[in-house]
Structures are given as structure tokens and as C-alpha cells.
Amino acid sequence: MSGRLLKITLWSAAAAATLGYVVLAARVLGAAAPGDPVETAVLDHAVRLAQGHAPYHDFVGAPPPGLMPGFPFAVSGLVLLFDAGLWEVRLVALLATLAAAALVARIVSSEAQSRTLGAAAGGFVLLGATLAWAGPAGARPEPLMLTLVLAACALLRYRQGVLGALAAALVMAAACFTHPAGLWFTFAALIHLGVHDRRRAVAYAAGVLLFVAGGDLALWSGFGPWFDFQAWVVPLLALRLQPLALLHFLGTQVLGTLGVLALGAVLSFALPVAPWRGAVGLWMWMALAALAAGVTASQSAGGAPDALLPVAIMLALAGPVSIQRVTRHLAAWPGSTRLGGQGLVLTALALQFLTLAAHLTPRTFLLAG
User: Fold this and answer.
1) What element of type H or E holds 242?
2) Is residue 16 classed exposed, middle or buried when 0-12, 13-18 and 19+ CB atoms within 10 A define those classes?
3) How far is Cα 18 from Cα 311, in angstroms, rounded to an integer?
4) 9-23, 80-94, 335-349: which range is least confident on average?
5) Rounded distance, CA 146 to CA 39, Å?
6) Which residue, 120, 177, 357, 183, is CA-closest to 257?
7) Please, are residues 129 and 143 in contact by the beta-carbon 8 Å criterion?
């Protein structure tokens, strides 16, 4: 009975997270004022792309926000169909976040053989996205980049052979040209393949080199020299060593909001089989890459509204899988039961929902108004 009640609780929490995110995001779509300077910059790039002009150009004064062309390119399709508006930028970010949540739910369901855990993981993604910017539908490139990363990882995990590795390399390259943090995940996937499948690692490395280097050369040729400066150099120039910001990110944002998932991932390192080994080890490498991306974002001089999202999404994936592996190992001890271990997994995820919900403040809803 308690197991059934816990499952109902998790499904209800996931449904509430989804409904809440969609409702609040719908309110944000129509807001007239830009919530972030990046929104205006993305729309400007999208308009120029739709008009057939290079999105990168000379500027006077402070440099504009560093942007890769992937997100503006996705928005430019809507600009061609409708009059340019900030709602188009926000809609693409909203759809990308929902797609990321769906991918995480599907992957966790497959890895854990549990639809309940998959639904909970999708709910964690949407709650994490809401907390990342103190409001839903943050119109930034990160959701689209992370969706592409998840799609590339799914190709690596579930499609065998060299063709799967090359397809994953192509999608990872697209993620890199959506946000520079995609490089962390690209290299993490290469390390995973180097440990797990060296033959596919060679194909993947060759594909990454071809698509990233070739793509950068093609974009530089098509968009001019300002592309490299605004897309790569500006984000690097914004980095500063900020120990207090790092401490706040790790202690308050990650452990304070995602502590249960983080603890589950850490405990998996005590298992007889290292969590980074085997095909399923890909998700631990992605979680580590997300942490590196978050730490880097926390050191940006312009603030870190995007620092939490990569960690939230990848821990929503790796956390439930890790917790289940740990509890299954403990359930194998004499006197333990499999049903008891399953109840522990469900309880831990219910507590994570409670922690995330507790961090939703009135400010979140005011920003969405």
C-alpha cells in the first residue's frame, strides 16, 4: 500500500510540475519587457538571419552578449512567419525545455525500467528550469543546447556502430554552436567512449573534429570575423575568479535544491562497479560535464542565470538511475528485500520534489505575471 501511495505521489508531483511550468510559461510569453538582455540580442540576430544578413557585426561601446548562431537560427523560422517579437524567442526556449524533460523522462524510464521514475525525472527538469531563472521559459540558448546534448547521448547509448557515433558527433556539434558549454558535454562523451568503446571513440572524435572545426570555419567564412569574437571570445572575456559565487552555486543552488539527486549520484561511487563504466556510465559523465558547465557559468562577470540548468537536467537523469542502482545493491544484502529498496527510491524522489517545491517563492510567480 505504501509503495502504491508513493507512486501516486510522484505521478501527481510530476503532473503538477508540468502543468505549473506550462501555465506560468504561457504568462511569460506575452510579457512586453525583456526579462534578460540575451532575449533582445537573440531576437536581433534572428531578424538579421531572416533578412539574409550576417547576425554578427561591428558595435560601439560594450560588446553585445556572446551568442552562438544556433538559437537565433531556430527563432528566425518564426520571424519569417510572423512579425518579430520576444514571444518567439521565449516559445523556442519553452519548447526546448519541454523536449528536454520528455527526453530525460524517456531515458530514465528505459534505464530504470520504471515509468514512475521517468515521470519524476521529467518533473525535476521542469522544476529545475523554473528555479534556474526564478521563472519559467527563460529565453536563453541553454535549453536548446541541452536538448541537443540529450539527443546526441541517446544516439550514443541506444544506437550501436560507427554511424551512431557519427550521428551523435553531428548533433553534439550543433549543441556546441548553440552554446559554448556544449563543448563540456562533447568532451565528456568522448571520454566515455574512450573508456567503454574505443572503436566508436575514434569515429566520434573524427566526427567532432570535422563538424566542429569545419562548422566554425564555414560560419567564420559566412558571417565574417565578428563571429569568432562575439561567439567565442566575449564569453571567455567575461570569466572572473569569484570564489564566493562558486561557493553559493555549489552549496546553495546545487546542494540546497538538488541535494537528494546529488547525494544519490555521489553514493553510486561506492558501488563495486564504478558508475562511469559500462554503457550506463554515459549519464554519470554527462552529470560531471554539467557540473563543470555550471561552475564555469558561475564565474561569469555578468552573473550566472544559466548555471543551475545543466546540473538540474543531468542530475534529474543520473540521480534517479544512481539511487536505484545503490538501493538494488543494498537490497541484495541478507535480510533486505527488493520491495524495500524500491520504496526507498520512491521516498528519496518524493523528498526531492518537496525540496524543489520549497524553493518556489512568491517572486517566481510575480516574475511570471
Assistant:
1) none
2) middle
3) 19
4) 335-349
5) 18
6) 357
7) yes
pLDDT digits 0-9 by tens, 245-301? 899 899 988 999 999 999 999 999 988 888 999 999 999 999 999 999 999 999 987
Grid cell listed for 235:
564569453
> What does the angle CA 261 – CA 154 – CA 149 come to, to the nearest 5 degrees?
75
174 vs 176: CA distance, rounded Å: 5
Set of cell numbers at residue 127: 522544476
CA distance linking residue 348 with residue 260, whole number of Å: 7
**Where do the domains of the chain lie?**
37-57+67-133+141-367
Q: At what angle do helices 115-132 and 255-267 cross, to 10 degrees?
A: 140
* Spatial CA neighbour of 349 closest among 260, 257, 252: 260
H/E element holding 310?
helix 308-331
Find all residues with CB under 8 Å of 37, minimum gap 6, and list them: 65
Distant-in-sequence, close-in-space partners of 58: CB < 8 Å, separation ≥ 6: 226
